[in-house]
């Protein structure tokens, strides 16, 4: 499967030094060998949910991913809707905890001078707002993994969180004039399907692949791996990140 690489740069005086982070939501237990060379050139991998696919009988590629990829680079992983609805979630999460990946289940950790937090999807009801209350007051540059962009819209926007990466919407599946046709949680003609939003504080990936079911085709909407470049900006505003985005080639 061909995927575009989109590079986005975020600058902030809170960032102590340069970091190159890959962002790969919605892997859905699919093939990943084509991105390994790119990952090897990054400082860490962020997975904002849906490494597993609850519709697949065989999620062996997700288990293999957990064994192999954290040997190449640090992996930070938060839960998406597929993890929380997966019928074998307990077994899978046990494998995550046994792996070298860092599971951020409504918690955060430090990495190379920044704070990385993971907001878990829920089967129903609101996310863990107590975690968000605590995370937005932590010291340093705060980067949040939040699988669902509509959760960002309703619960994260306006908080003191510097930058958030999302997935889930799969780019709206079918794009007409840059607008998606449908996204779960947003319905027909969703507004939050890909790209940078909220004054540069949130970025949505088109996703690494489709879920196994329902099999809705992608039209004018390639799969995507994001390379997030964090840079120090001593002269920038402490109130929010600045940045720019460029579309890259295929992997």
Keywords:
251 residues; alpha/beta; Purple Acid Phosphatase, chain A, domain 2; seven-stranded mixed sheet; six-stranded mixed sheet; 6 helices; 18% helix
Describe the protein's architecture and organization.
The chain contains 6 helices and 17 strands. The longest helix has 10 residues. The chain has 251 residues and is an alpha/beta fold. The mean pLDDT is 93. The strands form 4 sheets. It has a 7-stranded mixed beta sheet with strand order 5-4-3-2-16-1-17, with no helix packed on it. Strands 6-7-8-9-15-14 form a 6-stranded mixed beta sheet. The protein has a single domain, classed as Purple Acid Phosphatase, chain A, domain 2.
Task: Give the helix/strand layout.
Layout: E1 3-12, E2 19-23, H1 36-40, E3 44-48, H2 60-68, E4 75-78, H3 81-85, H4 89-98, E5 102-103, E6 107-111, E7 114-119, H5 129-135, E8 142-146, H6 149-156, E9 163-166, E10 175-176, E11 179-180, E12 182-183, E13 187-188, E14 195-197, E15 202-204, E16 223-232, E17 242-250
Parallel strand pairs: 1-16, 2-3, 3-4, 4-5, 7-8, 8-9, 9-15
Antiparallel strand pairs: 1-17, 2-16, 6-7, 10-11, 12-13, 14-15
Number of domains: 1
Q: What percentage of residues falls in helices of 4 or more residues?
A: 10-25%
CATH architecture: 4-Layer Sandwich
Oligomer kind: single chain
Structural class: alpha/beta
What name does CATH use for the topology?
Purple Acid Phosphatase, chain A, domain 2
Sheet with most strands: strand arrangement = 5-4-3-2-16-1-17
Average pLDDT rating: 93
| Cα distance spanning the termini | 9 Å
Query: In sequence order, what are the helices and strands, one letter per element?
Result: EEHEHEHHEEEHEHEEEEEEEEE
Rg estimate, integer Å: 17 Å
Main beta-sheet annotation: 7 strands, mixed
Report the total helices: 6
Assess the beta-strand content as a share of residues.
25-35%
Q: Count the strands?
A: 17
Shape: globular
